[in-house]
Amino acid sequence: MADFFYVSITGLQLKRVWHAPRFWLHAAASMSQAKSADGCLSADARTIDGVHHTLTVWTSRKAMLAYLSTGAHLKAMKAFKSFATGKVYGFETAKVPAWPTAHALWLDKGRQV
């Protein structure tokens, strides 16, 4: 295992309920891509207070950026503004946060995308 990890926390909220099928198609494909991406150590998702979150852990920021800019995730990023709003937060850490800590960090430090 690495001495430091890169953690990415995202949270997206649908603009309208009828966007759900499109959102879930992109979300499922992006999660599948993340779980098999080089450098991805873990990928998890959950809905908290109506916001759809992901928590991914990477060997490095470089590995996360390689995932971010290709395949299903790239397609999802290009489409998401038509059906959702959201915030992201990424950081290097020696200790992977549990969901409650990750969510608190996202609330406090997330940037609008």
Automatic annotation (TrEMBL):
It comes from the Bacteria. This is DUF3291 domain-containing protein.
